[in-house]
Amino acid sequence: MNPRDRVAYSAIIDRKKLQAPDGARLIVWPVVNVESWEIVRAMPRQVLPAPTGVPVIPDVPNWAWHEYGMRVGFWRLKAAFDELGIVPTLSINGDVCNQYPRVAQAAHESGWEFMGHGFVQMPMHQVEDQAAGIARTVQTIERFTGSPPAGWLGPGLTQTLDTVDLLRAAGIRYIGDWVLDDQPVPIRTAHGELIAMPYTVELNDIPMMAVQHHESEVLERRIRDSFDRLYQEGAEHVRVMCIAVHPFLSGVPHRIAYLERALRYVAGHPGVKFMTGRQILDWYLEQAA
Fold first, then answer.
1. N or C, which terminus of the chain has less Cβ within 10 Å?
2. What is d(CA 184, CA 182) in angstroms, rounded to the nearest whole number?
3. Which residues make Cβ contacts (< 8 Å) with residue 243, sequence separation at least 6?
4. Is 77 within 8 Å of 263 (Cβ atoms)?
5. Which runs of consecutive H residues, i.e. helices, occur in 196-255?
6. CA distance 4 to 86
7. Nearest-angstrom CA–CA distance, 106 and 161
8. Average of per-residue pLDDT across 132-142
């Protein structure tokens, strides 16, 4: 089914106003992405291109770049959220539970929500059996945490035209891949409704730092600028603002301070509610009902 056939067009100025939780005017959805990069395939991202410009396997330098994030960067991110008492959503490759159980356990013990992110970091288009890959991810997370994930974010936000049908059939209730609104949006699937959560490609360190190659300070400035406008608009109609970070990017020494300052700025305003994806889903479904 074409995406336009799954999502009805809705102008935000025409919608019934949602009653925000606890009287908030802005819901903030922080997402930390943790991934498992397999050395046997081309790396999902490169910080150091091959000298000839041709990707090589094994790509040890770029694998190690990501590995730094799991060994060191993640713990900087966790300390930043812990300091402010913010509980983020963990977008997690299922295999992280196997390869990096220390990371997964620390997040689980801190009450972070686990959101499925594929089993390993590779495009859904390249997964030979999507249904089996989704099931493997869901089952691995459920074994580790005791409950299946409610949400899903495709690796690199990738999906085929029928991925949402497969996700809903597997019990997934919301998805972050459809970055098309400032509020949750219903998606039609063959197995019932799936909710598109307002994830972000703008307040996301992958496009910002790894693709657009901005200076580190842009992370803070863009978060603050986005927050100021959404906070203003939220006085009339509640908005959802996502902040998405990766340990190997925002968890490095020259960027972490900018994220910390941005989080303190956002948290310092009244009428701001930090929520996990599952909490936003439950709130929205109650409002829709």
1. C
2. 7
3. 28, 29, 30, 31, 200, 203, 223, 262, 263, 266
4. no
5. 205, 218-234
6. 35
7. 35
8. 98
3-state secondary structure 52-89: CCCCCCCCHHHHHHHHHHHHHHHHHHHHHHHHHCCCCE
* HEC string for 165-191: HHHHHCCCCEECCCCCCCCCEEEEEEC
HSE of 4 in the Cβ direction (CA atoms, 13 Å)? 0
3-state secondary structure of 234: helix
Crossing angle for the helix pair 74-84 and 101-109, to the nearest 10 degrees: 0
User: Pairing state of beta strands 151-152 and 174-175?
Assistant: parallel
pLDDT in tens, 43-100: 999 999 888 888 789 999 999 999 999 999 999 999 999 999 999 999 999 999 999 9
Beta strand pairing call for 185-189 and 192-196: antiparallel
- The pLDDT tens digits of the residues spanning 159-171 come to 999 999 999 999 9
Domains identified in the chain and CATH numbers:
19-41+59-288 (3.20.20.370)
What is the phi/psi pair of residue 118, to 5°? 80, 170
Encoded amino acid at 36, one letter? S
pLDDT at position 155 is 98
Cα(204)–Cα(6) distance, integer angstroms:
25
Q: Is the pLDDT of residue 207 over 90?
A: yes
Distance CA 158, CA 117 (A): 10
Q: Which residue has the tokens 């006085």?
A: 235
CA-based nearest residue to 90, from 80, 101, 103, 100: 103
What value does the CA radius of gyration of the chain take, rounded to a whole number of Å?
18
Looking at residue 207, what DSSP letter applies? Answer: I
d(CA 114, CA 10): 30
